What does this fold into?
Amino acid sequence: MKIIFTVITILLPASSFAMMKALNISATGMAAQETNVSTISNNIANINTIGFKKDRAEFEDLLYETVTTPGGRSSTNTRYNVGTQIGTGAKVSAIRKEFSTGNPMITNNPFDLMINGDGFFGVILPNNEIKYTRDGSFNIDAEGNLVTKLGHKIFPGITFPQATLNVTIGENGNIEAYVKNQVEPINLGILPIFTFTNPVGLKSEGGNLYQISQASGPPVQAIPGSNNAGKIMQGTLESSNVNIMVEMTNLIKAQRAYEMNSKVMGVADQMLQTVNNIR
It folds into this structure.
């Protein structure tokens, strides 16, 4: 009886420690899936946002506790063919923007523009800082400037004459304005678009705007349709690239993963209670 008691007291701390690890591991899984669900929720919320690019949560495993190293010595003349490593959970390593082109939505509004391919429009903020957008739902202000919904000018600063009757913006960004009592159109220049070496490195600012970062690299100004830059489609807007069926499927998978992690936590807690109840 005395021997049995000694064995139990030796095993009890180790068992409790193992259950505590299981609780911590399942907690990391639940936290990761909570972030995943938030990402999916944001995608669904922006399904009707012009030019919105969906996010994708990416995961990675955490550090491992190495009990035996693969290839380590098991005896003088032999090595472990398979090691023993115990994982400590998972975390969200990145939330990546997917810049695939959304479906065109025809509006026939001459100031609605879509980039069919890679690239961004430049937006000039009041402090003259340039930020970037895929939202081409533009208009003109009281002074004839091409602006966003918030009144920010579009780079490089296009101003239409007051007597403009019609506007033509070609695939190459060439802007022509037809003015009252004038047969030939007035050429107002080219509307450039900007490309990046690593667009997923752009920082999302909200308001359909992106800001450059060290990861994105500097912007490259290009004529639409050249140097891997997309072409401009006039009278068309780019829909969000969110696929509702894909998002709902991902949401169900994330929910099931969260539930399974919570079940693991419950089982680990029950096992810990069993160990603690041993007398």
